[in-house]
UniProtKB/TrEMBL annotation:
Region (Disordered): 73-99
SUPFAM superfamilies in the cross-refs: Galactose-binding domain-like, Six-hairpin glycosidases
Naturally occurring in which organism (per UniProt): Amycolatopsis melonis
Name of this chain's protein: Alpha-L-rhamnosidase C-terminal domain-containing protein
Keywords for this protein: Signal
F5/8 type C domain residues: 99-208
Length: 820
């Protein structure tokens, strides 16, 4: 069978019933569902146990695990009058808890592990700390106690020996907060100099932090700890069943991580990191058996604190306590544990909750679809003050409502750019759109007087992003298309008008293009806070798409003149993009008309989807994007002039429109290849299953442990496979009209169902040799068009048809057979 770029449109009568492809097989999609079976989630294995631990399987509910630790010995002290100096130190501030604190070098020798020296050259080296003793000290080595907010990884220790500096020890790759550093030989000296050349990069910054330098080798009893693995990223409130403890108030510390790589003595991320917290949750274990549920708050004041909800795969439980938690918690004693579990709070996506589904002959694609659905479920949760982003994100207007957070562990705030993808995933899998509507309506309710719509509730709805009001427009149209909720469109129509007719004209230049920098927008960010200025193709192509979406909303609410006006403006912007931003030498659209020449995935993909690009331009631009293909996807820039890793960074968020563009321009095979590289990489690398916020150089988590490994904006494989490969999409609000336009590529068959307000719309197709068959089932009262390959013979219910144009009827089930 020969596929043509121009397809034969056939609009058909539909009736009730579901056809399967292949016809003889029963749906088997349930096997790919990833979510836990209940809200009581248990770890699947013990990953490791260190120190004095008996029966670590007790954490899995198999008996009782016992953690024991002797009390650490007293620490050695420098002679009275010892001082310290440093190459730099941070100015005093109120720290992370509002309490005044200093960071001068003397903190490293004051005997108080809660104070520390902090250099003042973030990410720049060397950082030097020099300790001068009042009298000579005999030293076999020193012990460096750093800080959970980041430890020195590479450093040397020099001693003043016989009047000259000598390197007595070198350390590389350190991750221990407390590190005993033995000298090459004992020495009696009055000065020790530590030179740091690399630190951990943490959410609190890449600084050298040293809490204490102890004169001598301090060997505390090892901290007993057990790491459990939940098998995949989960989210909710951890629980520990304690069988009891020694009477000295032993503490436990919990560290969480989505990956093994970033699980250490501190979590890969915890909300207290934004306030300079310790990076773990703490609890004091009572002597009597009890079940502790991790809850945000502190036992007393700022002591023994926990964050509550976490998103993670791995959990480390240690018998230990912060020095600052004394005497409420002690780092020694005995703790007995009889089980670990999690109260799973996100949407629980079991097979019975799926209102839409997908299945194909390609098992990998099936796995990626359901893994992305689960990723989205992790972010679909109730908005609660206790676990949303602490950076001013709490809003009474969202409190208690179901929303689409952007990530499982962070930032846990609904961003409209994320909803542009996660909303589609929501509509195609489980839900009627309530979560998306709650977000869209709330952001519109907080519209600024000049028409700008905030991207999220963070910072009290003030985070300045340039592109996100456009995503509000396109997301609102998607919501109405999938749900039929034209009442929402009518309620917020004035907000739509103000956004498009007041704010965006205020940042439009004389050439008719949006230009970041006008009207005080020079400091505005975008989805990745990229330092772009001037006429940017991505902003303008998205503007065209928003104007087109607004025209749909206008017609759906009886404002036809506005629709015509906005479509006219879209045509003008599109013409300006082609006139000023097309780079004929590269055969692609410029990222920006100013600065270094580069070409972005975002701008070029949206230009194709907006219809700005001609077929020849679309082919050329997509070829440019594919030229830099990586084993883990296509990069979001074709050189490194904007950011240092532009050719190595992959975003599923910006890759989704590229996938759509490839499917819609007859490049289904390349779209499937891109899906398999990008989603296949994430599925086969820790933590597995869930879709990452971004992929960095070499396939790494692009912002190290801070990276969200379960992010809703990365779930575009769901709409890509359902809307484009299976081919089902709405063409008017609530699927009153629809289209089924399969793009099979090399896939032998696919089938699925899409929820609509009137019931499921099902499609099933297969291609065998020169024969293509398609069966569609849609609710009564709807009509739709089928786009099938041309062939020698097209049969509609066994009748040969010649369609010079669409055949529009309404009804039940219909089958089309194409013989090539």
């Amino acid at each position: 069978m020969k596929w043509l770029r121009a397809f034969l449109p056939v609009t058909v009568l539909v009736a009730s019933g579901v056809a399967a492809a292949p016809a003889t097989a029963a749906p088997g999609w349930q096997q790919y569902v990833v979510a836990p079976s209940s809200r009581d989630v248990r770890p699947v294995r013990v990953l490791s146990a260190d120190g004095d631990v008996t029966n670590p399987d007790g954490l899995l509910g198999r008996g009782v695990a016992v953690l024991r630790r002797q009390a650490p010995p007293p620490k050695p002290a420098w002679p009275a009058g010892t001082t310290a100096a440093a190459s730099s130190f941070h100015a005093p501030n109120n720290g992370g808890n509002g309490q005044p604190r200093t960071y001068d070098p003397g903190n490293a020798v004051d005997g108080n592990p809660e104070t520390f020296w902090n250099d003042d050259t973030i990410g720049a080296y060397p950082d030097v700390l020099t300790v001068t003793s009042a009298t000579p000290v005999a030293l076999p080595g020193v012990t460096v106690l750093s800080n959970v907010d980041g430890v020195p990884q590479d450093f040397t220790v020099e001693v003043l020996d016989a009047g000259a500096w000598r390197v007595a020890a070198s350390v590389s790759g350190n991750t221990a907060v407390q590190r005993a550093v033995a000298f090459d030989r004992p020495v009696t000296t009055t000065q020790v100099r530590i030179t740091v050349t690399k630190d951990q990069n943490t959410p609190s910054g890449e600084f050298s932090r040293v809490a204490e330098v102890w004169p001598g080798l301090v060997a505390d009893p090892p901290v007993p700890s057990v790491v459990v693995d939940f098998g995949k990223v989960v989210a909710g409130y951890p629980k520990i069943a304690f069988a009891g403890a020694s009477p000295n108030r032993p503490g436990v510390r919990l560290a969480f991580s989505e990956t093994r790589q970033y699980l250490g003595e501190r979590s890969d991320f915890t909300r207290s990191d934004f306030a300079g917290g310790p990076g773990t949750d703490q609890y004091v274990v009572p002597t009597a058996p009890t079940v502790w549920r991790d809850t945000k708050g502190c036992l007393s004041g700022n002591q023994v604190c926990a964050d509550g909800l976490h998103g993670f795969r791995y959990l480390r439980i240690s018998l230990d306590a912060l020095a600052s938690d004394a005497p409420l918690a002690q780092p020694s004693g005995e703790v007995r544990i009889s089980g670990v579990s999690l109260d799973f709070t996100p949407f629980l996506g079991t097979p019975s909750t799926y209102r839409g589904w997908f299945e194909s002959s390609d098992e990998q694609l099936n796995q990626y679809w359901y893994a992305a659905s689960y990723t989205n479920e992790l972010g679909m949760d109730t908005f609660r003050e206790s676990d949303v982003d602490p950076r001013g994100a709490f809003s009474p207007s969202l409190d208690g409502k179901l929303v689409l957070h952007d990530g499982a562990k962070r930032d846990r705030d609904p961003y409209v750019g994320d909803v542009a993808v996660s909303g589609l995933t929501q509509y195609l899998t489980h839900q009627d759109g309530t979560a998306a509507r709650n977000v869209l309506a709330d952001l519109a309710d907080h519209q600024r007087a000049d028409g700008w719509i905030p991207p999220a509730s963070i910072n009290g709805y003030t985070l300045p992003l340039f592109d996100y009001p456009l995503w509000w427009v396109t997301s609102s149209w998607d919501y109405v298309l999938y749900t039929g909720d034209t009442a929402y469109a009518a309620s917020y129509y004035s907000h739509l008008v103000k956004t498009l007719d007041t704010w965006y004209p205020s940042v439009t230049d004389s050439r008719g293009l949006l230009a970041k920098g006008l009207n005080g927008t020079g400091g505005y960010g975008d989805y990745a806070f990229l330092p772009r200025t001037g006429e940017v193709t991505y902003y303008n192509a998205l503007y065209v798409r928003a104007l087109q979406a607004a025209a749909g909303l206008a017609r759906a609410t009886g404002h036809a003149p506005d629709a015509d006006r906005w479509l006219s403006r879209a045509s003008g912007v599109a013409a300006a993009v082609n006139a000023y931003l097309w780079d004929p030498a590269a055969g692609a659209y410029l990222d920006s008309a100013t600065g270094a020449v580069r070409h972005g995935q975002d701008g070029n993909s949206h230009a194709v989807l907006a219809g700005i690009a001609s077929p020849a331009q679309a082919s050329s631009a997509l070829a440019r994007l594919a030229a830099g293909a990586l084993p883990y996807g296509n990069p979001f820039m074709d050189n490194d002039t904007l950011v240092s890793d532009g050719t190595k960074r992959v975003y599923a968020f910006t890759s989704f429109p590229e996938l759509q563009a490839r499917f819609r321009t007859g490049q289904a095979a390349s779209a499937i290849d891109q899906i398999k590289r990008m989603y296949g990489w994430m599925a086969t690398h820790d933590p597995g299953i869930t879709a990452w916020e971004g992929i960095g150089e070499g396939g790494s988590h692009y912002e190290q442990g801070y990276t969200s490994a379960a992010h809703g904006w990365s779930t575009g494989v769901v709409p890509a496979l359902t809307n484009e490969l299976l081919g089902v999409s709405p063409t008017s609000p609530g699927f009153a009209t629809w289209k089924v336009a399969p793009n099979p590529g090399g896939v032998a068959w696919a089938r699925g169902a899409v929820p609509t307000p009137k019931g499921a719309l099902s499609a099933s197709w297969s291609q065998r040799g020169s024969v293509f068959s398609l069966t569609v089932t849609a609710p009564q009262g709807t009509s739709g068009s089928l786009v099938v390959p041309s062939g020698r013979l097209v049969l509609l219910d066994g009748r040969a048809v010649r369609a010079a144009g669409p055949l529009t009827v309404s009804g039940g089930t219909h089958t089309v057979l194409v013989v090539g």
